[in-house]
Write a structure and sequence with these properties.
This protein is of the alpha/beta class and 592 residues long. The chain is built from 22 helices and 23 strands. The protein is 38% helix and 20% strand. It has a 9-stranded mixed sheet with strand order 13-12-14-15-23-22-21-18-19, with helices on both faces. A 7-stranded parallel sheet has the order 5-2-6-1-7-10-11, sandwiched between helices.
Length: 592
């Protein structure tokens, strides 16, 4: 594939949203990125969040979904995870713009005297800062190549008309003239609801009013992406074109699909890529979406189930564990299995809850005991921790495949210390500050006074202590791995020798060899736990190795995947992974 000259002007695509929140602006922006990347263009992404927080790091998962951690330690909105997974990029903290960051930067300049005595105002100072931030960050390469990207896709968070979004909308209005008409494309995502019984009528008025609000702010969309449950009728599409001032071929109907990997394919089928190329004066190219389409269709066609229990604290909101569920999806489709997730509220497994609600207690344990594998994800605070510890104990004693992440690993260590070493009061100082036998302790470099951005964050190196272990083989026998972290507490170094002597093998440690990163039980079919968060680097075409191990073990396919020949075959493949690794293993024949 050819790429544009680095001297060509940056192209900007802005994705806005109207009517209601949660329409899928992030998936729409990510899908546009998939189309452009399939045409050979280099793509980067920016997310604008109008909230005053500096970043998402201190937000509750119930409030805003998961916090997505970047390589540089940035704690960002979960949509950056969508961008990275769909477009296969590595973004930075500056690719997530918030009101807090913008005002912090403006006030810092004012304190330095950079405004030369001027009265600092929203226009032009705040709007200029937004535009300068966008133009600066858009030039950062995010795909491992040198030189700036060709296209920057900007998702404008919130809903058109929100008070907090107004400075960003004004900045985008100015940006369209600053960069030039044919270097700017605005895609507006809206909802076409159905009103009435027995099928009802598809209503265009909410979208008309949303576009009207956008145009009153000085922005006229070049394309509409209309969300609906069922395909829109032609008369509805014609009405939208007439009243929203867009041509019919620039209206995309993004109705509900069986899985989100179909969204780029739906866009392509409706000519969305052609409309973008016309607006941005890009040369027309054929898109290579064969592998993407294969994955989307394979997800729909696999029938053999694999059930995984996610034992967590925030199970009331699926977005709280979005990267975890996506990583499971990536591994399941690569393993030729239909993923079935069973959500288990960790607190329901605790003995204290049995007294309050025995039926719910029995139901929770019934779920745990019925699945093929157990995953205990990260989290903070005391609530539900004992339930996670009990889930780890059950997995160890019943030989059920288990993957623990961050707090999940710490729960496994506490459980092992209590029930194997006999240290009955073993716990974490996060939950029991004065614990007499701490198995997990506060990291010495952490802050006890400030919460935001003070954890051990971002990409850190883990060095394998032996390559003769399941974890190393899952990573294709590489001597080390770089994975992303987000934690304040760690396994107590003073207890490591006792744990290892009893069979708790720490097969991965940090570069100082003092911080435990990967735990494995050699005599267990599959019991793996990591201090880092492997889900953040999982990709549809390159699943996270620990998640791949869990799914393969839960479906009885792990042994063949870990053979020396299978590891060698994956190591020789581009990116260290094959699209259909199990099929390749089956087709691998010994030399005669």
């Amino acid at each position: 594939m050819t790429t544009m000259s680095t001297k060509a002007p940056m192209k900007y695509i802005v994705v806005s949203g109207g009517v209601v929140s949660g329409l899928g602006k992030g998936v729409t922006a990510s899908s546009i990125g998939v189309l452009l990347r399939a045409g050979g263009w280099r793509v980067t992404s920016i997310k604008i969040d109008p909230y005053i927080n500096i970043d998402a790091g201190t937000m509750s998962p119930f409030e805003h979904g998961e916090v997505f951690v970047l390589d540089d330690g940035g704690e960002a909105d979960l949509d950056l995870g969508n961008y990275e997974r769909f477009v296969d990029t590595t973004l930075t903290r500056d690719h997530n713009i918030t009101t807090g960051k913008i005002y912090q930067a403006v006030i810092a300049k004012e304190r330095k005297g950079e405004y030369l005595g001027k009265t600092v105002q929203v226009i032009p100072h705040v709007t200029d800062e937004i535009q300068e931030w966008i133009e600066r960050v858009a030039k950062i390469p995010v795909d491992g190549q040198d030189g700036q990207p060709d296209v920057c896709i900007i998702e404008l968070g919130g809903t058109v008309g929100d008070i907090e979004s107004m400075p960003f909308i004004e900045a985008v209005r100015q940006l369209q003239w600053r960069v030039g008409t044919h270097n700017f494309c605005l895609v507006h995502v809206s909802l076409v609801p159905v009103v009435g019984a027995d099928g009802g009528e598809q209503k265009t008025k909410p979208t008309q009013h949303s576009v009207q609000a956008l145009r009153s702010a000085g922005l006229s969309p070049h394309m509409l992406a209309c969300r609906s449950k069922e395909p829109l009728e032609q008369a509805v599409l014609d009405k939208l074109a007439l009243f929203c001032h867009v041509t019919p071929d620039c209206i995309l109907n993004l109705c509900d699909v069986s899985n989100i990997w179909h969204v780029p394919l739906v866009m392509q089928e409706q000519g969305g890529h052609l409309a973008i190329m016309r607006q941005l004066k890009l040369d027309f190219r054929r898109l290579d979406l064969e592998a993407w389409a294969h994955r989307a269709n394979k997800w729909d066609s696999v029938t053999v189930p694999v059930t995984i229990a996610i034992v967590g604290k925030y199970t009331g909101l699926g977005d709280s564990y979005l990267s975890v569920t996506k990583a499971l999806m990536h591994s399941a489709v690569a393993s030729d299995r239909k993923l079935q997730i069973v959500w288990v509220e960790a607190g329901m497994l605790e003995d204290a809850h049995r007294v309050e609600n025995e039926v719910a207690y029995d139901e929770a344990w019934g779920k745990v005991k019925s699945v093929d594998g157990i995953l205990v994800p990260g989290g903070f605070g005391e609530r539900g921790t004992e339930g996670k510890i009990l889930a780890a104990q059950y997995a160890r004693e019943s030989n059920t495949p288990f993957l623990g992440i961050c707090l999940g690993m710490q729960a496994a260590v506490i459980e092992f210390a209590r029930n194997v070493l006999g240290i009955k009061h073993a716990h974490s100082t996060e939950m029991v500050p004065n614990c007499p036998d701490p198995a997990v302790i506060f990291m010495p470099e952490g802050s006890t006074t400030h919460m935001g951005g003070t954890m051990r964050l971002g990409s850190r190196r883990t060095i394998f202590q032996t390559l003769d272990c399941k974890a190393a083989k899952l990573y294709n026998s590489q001597p080390f791995v770089d994975e992303r972290h987000r934690h304040r507490y760690e396994v107590n170094p003073d207890m490591v020798d006792q744990l290892e002597a009893a069979g708790c093998a720490f097969v991965g440690k940090d570069d100082t060899l003092k911080r435990m990163e990967i735990l494995e039980y050699p005599d267990h079919p599959f019991f793996l736990a990591t201090q880092y968060h492997p889900e953040y680097k999982s990709r549809p075409g390159r699943p996270s190795p620990p998640f791949m191990g869990l799914i393969l073990a839960a479906s009885g396919q792990l042994a063949g995947y870990l053979t020396d020949d299978a590891v060698a075959m994956r190591s020789a493949a581009p990116g260290g992974f094959l699209q259909s690794p199990l099929k390749a293993i089956k087709n691998m024949k010994p030399a005669e």
